[in-house]
Amino acid sequence: MATLFISDLHLDAEQPRSTEQFLDFLKTEAQQADALYILGDLFEAWIGDDDTDPANAPIVNGLADLRRHRIPCFFMHGNRDFLIGRRFAAATGCELLSENEVVEINGVRVLLTHGDLLCTDDEPYQALRAQVRNPGWQREFLSKPVKERRRIANDLRAKSQTAISEKSEEIMDVNESAVAEAMRAYGVTTLIHGHTHRPGIHEFELDGNVATRIVLGAWYDQGSVLRWNDGGFTLATLDR
Ligand code: MN
Description:
This protein is an alpha/beta fold. The protein has one domain (about 5-240): 4-Layer Sandwich (Purple Acid Phosphatase, chain A, domain 2). Helix content is about 35%, strand content about 25%. Strands 4-3-2-1-10-11 form a six-stranded mixed β-sheet. Strands 5-6-7-9-8 form a five-stranded mixed β-sheet, with helices on one face. Helix 1 packs parallel to helix 2 (about 55-70). The protein is globular. The relative contact order is 0.18. The model has no long low-confidence stretch (mean pLDDT about 95). Bound molecules: manganese (II) ion (MN). The site of manganese (II) ion (MN) has 8 residues, from loops. Manganese (II) ion binds next to loops.
């Protein structure tokens, strides 16, 4: 039995293979797990729980089915699906986590976060994040018709793609001081995040201790999962 961590699946009707792979993962490995943690960007875009896009139904049902198998599922917002709310949580049985969450996994205190908060060198992104995470902005956005919301989301996505193409790789990675600060603030030496799509395990020194930062991979070309059991953790890819 293992606790499983995934992020950055970016599920989208236009990329059906990722959805198929995720549904298969839910029916197989996830059903044998101690718990499943989804650390954001499960969806490429989420414009509100009241969107009845039929492409989302199998995913919601797949998660609900996991719940019926009594596997605890936890969900943390990413920068694409931060509008996931209570209705989604009720439909899937996933428990919503806050943007920084400390959990104990096999006796180790671990900080979980999507990862975008740690990319402090990307100032324009952080400004945009502050805007769209503002409750007033979200209320106004959610009051618009679904069709208009979809148009705004597509616009934002196009703008973000242009911005990304103009930014250096370095600016879009996590900032080392931000990582150290977050780990200190939560009193942990282990951190798991996604967002950067640069899967890896990084060991470094933090105030005289060995600290570990585990980065989950994106699901564009294949699945990616962190498995953590009594024997330790492994970061693996799921072949298609
Ligand atoms: Mn992200």
